[in-house]
Specification:
34% of the residues lie in helices and 23% in strands. It has 494 residues and is α+β, with helices and mostly antiparallel strands. It folds into three domains: 100 residues, Rossmann fold, CATH 3.40.50; 71 residues, Dna Ligase, domain 1; 238 residues, ATP-grasp fold, B domain (D-amino Acid Aminotransferase, Chain A, domain 1), CATH 3.30.470. Strand 15 and strand 16 form a beta hairpin. The longest helix is centred in the middle third of the chain and has 16 residues. The termini are far apart.
């Protein structure tokens, strides 16, 4: 086993990895920018090193400085987390050149799957269905993309080749708006990933975003850990994830899982990764991209499978064989994750900065919180606005929803604005509780005024009666819009 690991990241994911390392008896090294001196990941690590000023291009994206710290501190391996350098093949190669193990896939796999255009061509050759778009062409010029766009058809998406998370992505409805959107997409991709290359992909309207978590070892074994439902997004950024997906039955889950494994096998994939798919209204599914890293939403898979993905990453990187076969993987219960961001949901979700003066995290049965903040922590404008993830598990989806509603109500934070009111309304909406949504639901058919108190009570009650209180409570019909004579919550739990 490794003796010391450097975590080339910050925030809640750095904290998550540090804790996994400590549970395995591995010493940790943190890196930080000058505004992160007092961050939680710095406090928890065994050693910590300053790598530069606040802008990520001068700190967390500096491969040379991170490798220098790794050499000085004598680490055996580097874990990149997600974002920043996690999907950069040159970083993985720099680790190899320095005789340091990169806890992730090989540089060649990152190159093939990390570049989304190349990934599409690679998996198509392996017999995997892909969303129509530019195929096999990398680093196309704006003129090239403008010429190819009409053949793909509108609406379409401009997508960053080098990374994920919705960064460097723009929706295009007409050719005349493409030049400006190409410019802004390239600028954002360059800032987020250090690479401004983009490609085009047909926009499939009314689709759901389904992803499969994968693990692969160095002995050719690749398995999936089931799916995550990631359709609830705002500005192409996921806001809520759950596992399993309410849209999949056992047969569809099996077929999509086999497709995901086949796509990973096309590049002899090792370590943790995610195959992202689109599922249309007719049950057709398509490979969209592969994220060659740990995902933000990995805890929901951990909760329903009982597998610690970060620890498995470390074991695989050390050369261990997978401890699981596909037939060993089962999903128990239901898990939901809400991303709590420092932003104002009542002012177009503008980022909110400041010092957290008070914070009270939710606790109780089935509740897990991942965070990198504390009372007195300063939220700055330099990095991603996410400050915590709430993960709630239940025996059934209704129970997980009920626990999430409770957790959101318990969460208290002062000093910055957060999107907790947004999540409260979203989780309380009838459409969410019925599982009737797609990737456009949040932006096109949901507002903070959508859910009245009565409607939220009704929705929660209906969901509860469907499964959670099977055989305990029965009701024939509840009509929306009818006045409530008393609290339906109290009535349902008598």
């Amino acid at each position: 086993m490794f003796k010391k690991i450097l975590i080339a990241n910050r925030g809640e994911i750095a904290v998550r990895i540090i804790r996994a390392c400590h549970e395995l008896g591995i010493a940790t090294v943190a890196v930080f920018s000058d505004v992160d001196r007092n961050s939680l990941h710095v406090r928890l690590a065994d050693e910590a090193f300053l790598i530069g000023p606040a802008p990520s291009r001068d700190s967390y994206l500096r491969i040379d400085r991170i490798i220098d710290v790794a050499r000085k501190s004598g680490v055996d391996a580097i874990h990149p987390g997600y974002g920043f350098l996690a999907e950069r093949e040159d970083f993985a190669q720099a680790c190899a050149d320095a005789d340091i193990i990169f806890i992730g896939p090989s540089p060649s796999a990152i190159a093939k799957m990390g570049d989304k255009a190349t990934a599409r061509a690679t998996v198509k050759e392996a017999g995997v269905n892909i969303v129509p778009g530019t195929e096999g062409e990398a680093n196309l010029s704006d003129d090239d993309l403008l010429a190819l766009a009409p053949g793909i058809g509108f609406p379409l998406l401009i997508k960053a080749s080098a990374g994920g998370g919705g960064k460097g992505q723009r929706e295009v409805r007409a050719l005349e708006e493409m030049p400006g959107l190409l410019k802004s997409a390239r600028r954002e991709a360059e800032s987020a990933f250090g690479d401004g290359a983009v490609y085009l992909e047909k926009l499939i309207e009314g689709a759901r975003h389904i992803e499969f978590q994968l693990l692969g070892d160095h002995f050719g074994n690749i398995i999936h850990l089931g799916e995550r439902e990631c359709s609830l997004q705002r500005r192409r950024q996921k806001v809520l994830e759950e596992s399993p997906s309410p849209a999949l039955d056992a047969d569809l889950r099996w077929r999509m899982g086999q497709m995901a494994v086949r796509a990973a096998q096309a590049v002899n994939y090792t370590n943790a990764g995610t195959i992202e798919c689109l599922l249309d209204k007719h049950g057709n599914y398509y490979f969209m991209e592969m994220n060659t890293r740990l995902q933000v939403e990995h805890p929901v898979t951990e909760r329903v499978t009982g597998i610690d993905i970060v620890k498995e990453q470390i074991r695989i990187a050390r050369g261990r064989k997978l401890r699981y076969r596909q037939e060993d993987i089962t999903q128990t219960g239901w898990a939901i994750e809400c991303r709590v961001n420092a932003e104002d949901p009542f002012n177009n979700f503008l980022p909110s900065t400041g010092v957290i003066t008070r914070i009270q995290f939710p606790t109780g049965p089935g509740v897990r919180v991942e965070t990198g903040v504390y009372e007195g922590f300063a939220v700055t404008p330099y990095y991603d606005s996410m400050i915590a993830k709430i993960i709630c598990w239940g025996d059934s989806r209704p129970e997980a929803i009920l626990r999430m509603r409770r957790s959101l109500n318990e969460f208290r934070i002062m000093g910055v604005k957060t999107n907790i009111p947004f999540h409260q309304q979203l989780v309380g909406s009838l459409r969410f509780q019925a599982g009737q949504f797609d990737t456009r639901f949040v932006e096109d058919r949901f507002t903070l005024e959508d859910v009245s108190d009565d409607a939220a009570d009704i929705a929660a009650l209906v969901s509860t009666l469907v499964e959670h209180h099977r055989g305990q409570v029965a009701v024939s019909h509840i009509e929306r819009g009818q006045p409530l004579r008393s609290s339906r919550w109290k009535w349902a739990t008598r």
